[in-house]
Amino acid sequence: xxxxxxxxxxxxxxxxxxxxxxxxxxxxxxxxxxxxxxxxxxxxxxxxxxxxxxxxxxxxxxxxxxxxxxxxxxxxxxxxxxxxxxxxxxxxxxxxxxxxxxxxxxxxxxxxxxxxxxxxxxxxxxxxxxxxxxxxxxxxxxxxxxxxxxxxxxxxxxxxxxxxxxxxxxxxxxxxxxxxxxxxxxxx
Length: 188
Fold this sequence. Notes:
Order of helices and strands: HHEEEEHEHEHEH
């Protein structure tokens, strides 16, 4: 993918400010196009990056004990309104010979979240990446997020949270199955 074009973003933001009836040359807005362009570098740093590539530290493992990461904060930008959505992820998998460095699971979430996105695709993308690289007995990814497009516009329901879940694998050799892993993901 072509690198982020900061100058084009600056021009577009200045034009947007004019289009909404404001003056991009007034004191409070003078540096806004530059700030937005720099902010977009981070917000959209996942564009053109394969989520699978984030899981690049893999170890052999003899056990099939569940691996769970909870309270994993994330943020993304809704592709429909370009407003943020943010929340927490729970990721769990049952190894079948391989485990990943824990930070790599967080990195996979971060890469996929840092592109214009919908929560449903984000959830599936992370689950698919983990399943593809580790080939576990099974994987469950749950995201719970508040969408500012729903809080600030349309139905205007701040505080509402959307829960999405993706499961992959048959959990064939894990006695507690998918439900057991989900239960562990939610236990205190």
